[in-house]
Amino acid sequence: MVGGFRWAAMFPDEVWEHVFSFLPADADRNAAALVCRAWYRLERRSRWRVFVGNCYAVEPAAAVRRFPEVRAAAIKGKPHFADFNLVPSDWGGGAEAWVEAMAEGWPHLEELRLKRMVVSDDCLELIARCFKNFKVLSLVSCEGFSTAGLAAIAANCRYLRELDLHENEVEDNCLHWMSHFPESCTSLVTLNIACLEGEVNVSVLERLIGRCPNLKTLRLNHSVPLERLVGLLHRAPQLVDLGTGKYAAQHHPELFSRLESAIAGCKNLKGLSGFWEAGPTFLPAIYSVCEGLTSLNLSYATIQGPELIKLISRCKNLQRLWVMDLIEDEGLIAVAASCKLLQELRVFPSDPYGAAQPISLTEHGLVAISAGCPMLHSVLYFCRQMTNAALLTVAKNCPNFTCFRLCIMEPHTPDYITRQPLDAGFSAIVESCKHLRRLSLSGLLTDLVFKSIGASANRLEMLSVAFAGDGDAGLHYILSGCKNLRKLEIRDCPFGDKPLLDNAAKLETMRSLWMSSCSVTLGACRQLARKMPLLNVEVINERKRGLPLELQPDNCPVEKLYIYRTVAGPRSDTPSCVWILR
Amino acid sequence: MELELGLALPGGDLIAELGLASEKSTSMCRKRGFDDMFCRATSPPLFVQKDGDDDDGDDDDSRFNHLQELNLGSRVLVGWPPVRVSRRKSEEGGKRRVNCVKVNMEGVAIGRKVDLSLHDSYQALFLTLSQMFPKKQHDGEESDAAYYKVTYEDEDGDWMLVGDVPWEAFIL
């Protein structure tokens, strides 16, 4: 502002709102809102999409009050390590507080996306009742609801466009929930029920998709038999993304040819997934659409290498491939030769607990992909051996990585040829990949790798560390470097109190920090909580050890620690194993 | 007798060539494949040895003992490797119990291992076998894949023709 001139009044509010409509990114809008009170007022009334990365970072009522015109909200709950059973099941992340506040203040809400939250049937019923214009419900890695809740959504959301259920734990107590979609429901664009465990009434589903001409994404669950897939595809040949149900049946040439022609009839198919229990018999039925595929998820299909190679070599336009390690090095070499547009690769372990025969998926597969696929930028790779040399090669081949997650399945595994730690390899990755936003480490690692990461990983936003480091220095390098770090999750590392206390201010610049099975004491947590009022310092001790936590001495070890910045103060829904220190 | 992996063409005395398992040849071997290659002194007609599916201990040389230790020696860790609960559940639900059998072909020194649980029919199995043991050309004439018979040794030690019993009974 110059002098007392209220330059914001130069234009009517509507003009400024129109200007702000060209700022979709939250960061830009947040910056605009800080310019002056007028812009703050104008921006908040024109923001219609909010993303809340941590449901406990702000009071729901405060968020609703600040942005009264929101039409689309995305909210995340539990920490990422909840996916691997490290977070107690009653930790929190309940959606009720948010849904109630939104029902009150955002009656025009159209889209709701929740991730890692506990969503009850009551929540779903509230959503179904209160939001008259509701169009999109996306639940990812959530739990706490049943098909009865889904029935309420189906029955009441007259304009529902997307029902996207991804990897949720859903109780199956309402067999005919899909029958609750009224005949008047014709607006579905996305229907993803892949995570449902129960039976699905395929005839009801056939009628539903038959009356939804705009359906683009259909992902079935494993209860839908292969024979019925034919009928479904006939009713939705316009599909762009298909998740099959069970992809196995008694071998039958007639079924094969009907399936083949039904799939070929889907001329717009770009994505395929599902393939539960797939064997080699029916895989060739999809050959006709392979050339057009950009996304292929075979990570639930236990198909051997040769069959995978025959299939994937036809997918010349593949951008995303998710597959089991049964593809082996040989298969990845074939992928590298055929899929020149590949951007994202995920290789999952067929046998994480290592009882079956060893799979020949090694560092060679990864190197081959890095050499053959110039557009590769995102990798998730589970394997059992690695070398620094291989990682150096990968780093040189792929300077454009944005996401690199390597999981060598046995903790503390060194370079199997030199027996050295893998510091040099991962350092090469962070030094070469200047745009790296996400990194997961594994194998034998000393504090040296953290020195490199702290110094070089300037765009890194999320770091996952397990069974690594020598001592406090490792954590200190990370917290004192990594300018853009938002999420840090650590397990089973010898990191203690000092780096936390020395870098307390850093924690306020991040969304959250998780540490479990490290060397942090209660005393340090108490100090941190006193020093940093804008952090919630949650100590999670599941083993009941005599004295309650308030009375434990400072040197009491902390099993699990979750620290996050918040303007909402301590939450009121903590279970008995969680203490929030003040 | 420790069975060794060889990168040479079938035939010849691979064990003599490799000598004792040196570090170099061990790592070469590890590159080549998993525990599906081994030598036999005699090569009976193409057969599937059913009793061999559980005794991995016999076949694995020190190279694979190392790998097995990595898998079996570690204590039980919660949430490691970081595989989602839903993914693990579906793997168990898919009933993927490994069912490996050794396969040897007459005239071929190196045998292979096949995981029957990854196949859903005889057709699929024969397809895999024909890929593992490609047709050899004798004096310019093409051998017919149908020329080879696939047999297996049952619990009583009798040699049976593969395909006699329904697939579901065969894989049990």
Automatic annotation (TrEMBL), chain A:
A GO BP entry: pollen maturation
Keyword Oxidoreductase: no
Entry-linked Gene3D superfamilies: 1.20.1280.50, Ribonuclease Inhibitor (3.80.10.10)
Domain F-box: 11-52
Primary subcellular site in the record, as a coarse category: nucleus
One MF annotation (Gene Ontology) recorded for this entry: auxin binding
SUPFAM superfamilies in the record: F-box domain, RNI-like
Keywords from the UniProt entry: Auxin signaling pathway, Nucleus, Ubl conjugation pathway
Gene Ontology, cellular component aspect: nucleus; SCF ubiquitin ligase complex
Nucleus listed as a keyword: yes
Location relative to the cell: Nucleus
Pathway: Protein modification; protein ubiquitination
SMART domains reported in the protein's UniProt record: FBOX (SM00256), LRR_CC (SM00367)
InterPro entries: COI1_F-box (IPR041567), F-box-like_dom_sf (IPR036047), F-box_dom (IPR001810), Leu-rich_rpt_Cys-con_subtyp (IPR006553), LRR_dom_sf (IPR032675), Transp_inhibit (IPR041101)
Highest taxon of source: Eukaryota
Subunit structure: Part of a SCF (SKP1-cullin-F-box) protein ligase complex. May interact with auxin and auxin-responsive proteins.
Protein name per Swiss-Prot or TrEMBL: Transport inhibitor response 1-like protein
Source species of the chain: Musa troglodytarum
TrEMBL record, chain B:
InterPro entries, alphabetized: AUX/IAA_dom, AUX_IAA, PB1-like
Keywords: Auxin signaling pathway, Nucleus, Repressor, Transcription, Transcription regulation
Predominant cellular place of this UniProt entry's protein: nucleus
Keyword Repressor belongs to the record: yes
Domain of life: Eukaryota
GO biological process: auxin-activated signaling pathway; regulation of DNA-templated transcription
Location within or outside the cell: Nucleus
Alphabetical list of Gene3D superfamilies matching this protein: Phosphatidylinositol 3-kinase Catalytic Subunit, Chain A, domain 1
Record has Transcription regulation as a keyword: yes
Assembly and binders: Homodimers and heterodimers.
Family per record: Belongs to the Aux/IAA family.
Task performed by this protein: Aux/IAA proteins are short-lived transcriptional factors that function as repressors of early auxin response genes at low auxin concentrations.
Protein name from the UniProt record: Auxin-responsive protein
Originating species: Musa troglodytarum
